[in-house]
């Protein structure tokens, strides 16, 4: 599954639904669906808010099913992350307004079985998340 969408906040819900429908063929529990939807929501929100800074851009989402494992990749070509280790810390946010909790990566880690983040300043960020469905 591949999806390209504009980096606007209202597309976050669309991304959640698309991934939920895609994973439905795996016969997931409601809890598994909710976990994946939450993680996707956080990744897309990060791309909109931090990756593109509310400017126009494209968010790329890919989904893959291999056996009982779902892989979801969310990628942006935004500003990237200067200090990835710091950005992964709970409560850290680069949002100066104070409106963001800094828990996006923590939520992704908590709701998925595996989280990998690749980023280069000026080249964007790729978030790869994996979850075993049904066990």
The total tally of domains equals: 1
Overall outline: globular
Strand content: 25-35%
Radius of gyration: 14 Å
Offer a quick outline of the entry.
The chain has 135 residues and is α+β, with helices and mostly antiparallel strands. Helices cover 35% and strands 28% of the residues.
Give a description of the structure:
The chain is α+β, with helices and mostly antiparallel strands and about 140 residues long. The protein has four helices and five strands; from the N terminus they run βααββααββ. The protein has a five-stranded antiparallel sheet with strand order 1-2-3-5-4, covered by helices on one side. A hairpin with a 2-residue loop joins β2 and β3. α1 (about 10-25) packs antiparallel against α2 (about 30-50) and α2 (about 30-50) runs antiparallel to α4 (about 105-110). The longest helix has 22 residues, at about 30-50. The two termini are about 25 Å apart.
List keywords for this structure.
Heat Shock Protein 90; 5-stranded antiparallel β-sheet; alpha+beta; 135 residues
Write the layout of secondary structure elements.
Elements: E1 2-6, H1 11-23, H2 30-51, E2 58-66, E3 69-76, H3 84-87, H4 104-111, E4 114-120, E5 124-132
Antiparallel strand pairs: 1-2, 2-3, 3-5, 4-5
Helix pairs in contact: 1-2, 2-4
């Amino acid at each position: 599954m591949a999806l390209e969408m504009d980096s606007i906040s209202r597309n976050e819900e669309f991304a959640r639904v698309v991934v939920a429908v895609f994973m439905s063929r795996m016969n997931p529990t409601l809890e598994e669906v909710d976990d994946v939807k939450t993680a996707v929501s956080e990744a897309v929100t990060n791309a909109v808010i931090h990756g593109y800074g509310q400017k126009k851009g494209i968010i790329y989402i890919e989904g893959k099913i291999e056996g009982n494992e779902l892989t979801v990749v969310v990628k942006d070509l935004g500003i990237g992350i200067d200090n990835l280790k710091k950005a992964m810390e709970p409560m850290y946010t680069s949002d100066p307004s104070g409106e963001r909790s800094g828990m996006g990566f923590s939520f992704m880690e908590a709701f998925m079985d595996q989280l990998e983040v690749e980023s280069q300043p000026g080249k964007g960020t790729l978030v790869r998340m994996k979850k075993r469905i049904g066990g």
